[in-house]
Amino acid sequence: AQKITQTQPGMFVQEKEAVTLDCTYDTSDPSYGLFWYKQPSSGEMIFLIYQGSYDQQNATEGRYSLNFQKARKSANLVISASQLGDSAMYFCAMREAGNTPLVFGKGTRLSVIA
Amino acid sequence: NAGVTQTPKFQVLKTGQSMTLQCAQDMNHNSMYWYRQDPGMGLRLIYYSASEGTTDKGEVPNGYNVSRLNKREFSLRLESAAPSQTSVYFCASRGLAGLRSEQYFGPGTRLTVT
């Protein structure tokens, strides 16, 4: 069963606007971690932000923040003040407790329009 | 530090040919992973090695074999390539066993099987 769901195959946002990329997850493990990665057209995978299931506050890293709603099992990425360089694929991923690999969603392609 | 390196960057194979994708990391990481990325499918785990001397199947292991040659190197072998194995292959590694530790990715290998 798919553990990470990203329902938006593609999104458009105007430059300087904020955008939210959706991610829902499924796990019965009380201890887990959620990650967001960016993949620009050059192909490399860039780590953006992490949220732990027991973290009291929503994670923030510069213009990236995570809207973590544990009861709804959602971990949406918010990008503020979008820039043209934010155009990329964005992947949500989860790791459950133990030395387990990341499981990825199918991704959302974000296009920033000038 | 070079991080995670992969060779080759590009490869074209004919159906039935074999090849080995090489991956090495210089970060003294314990865990290493092989993913494939296909359009609309996100990254799917092929095999992983939680530590030197161990390997485990991921979500899509059929048609592949792996070898954890030493702590640095983790290779992926296609014994008899099929067009369905046309994909971009990513190797990744992770050092700490905790939830928070990110996976570092190589630049990818683009493989085409004709």
Summed up:
Helices cover 0% and strands 51% of the residues of chain A.
Description:
- The complex is a heterodimer of chains A (114) and B (114).
- By secondary structure, chain A is mostly beta strands.
- Chain A has no helices and twelve strands.
- In chain A, strands 2, 5, 6, 10, 11 and 12 form a six-stranded mixed sheet that branches. In chain A, strands 3-9-8-7 form a four-stranded antiparallel sheet, with no helix packed on it. A two-stranded antiparallel sheet of chain A has the order 1-4.
- The model of chain A has no long low-confidence stretch (mean pLDDT 95).
- Chain B has 114 residues and is an all-beta fold.
- Chain B contains no helices and eleven strands.
- In chain B, the strands form two sheets. In chain B, strands 2, 4, 5, 6, 9, 10 and 11 form a seven-stranded mixed sheet that branches. Chain B has a four-stranded antiparallel sheet with strand order 1-3-8-7, with no helix packed on it.
- In chain B, a hairpin with a 6-residue loop joins strand 5 and strand 6 (56-57).
- The chains are: A mainly beta (114), B mainly beta (114).
- The A-B interface holds A 4, 6, 9, 31-33, 35, 43-45, 47, 50, 52-53, 91, 93, 95, 97, 99, 101-107 and B 31, 33, 35, 40-45, 48, 50-51, 58, 88, 90, 92, 97, 99-100, 102-105, 107-108.
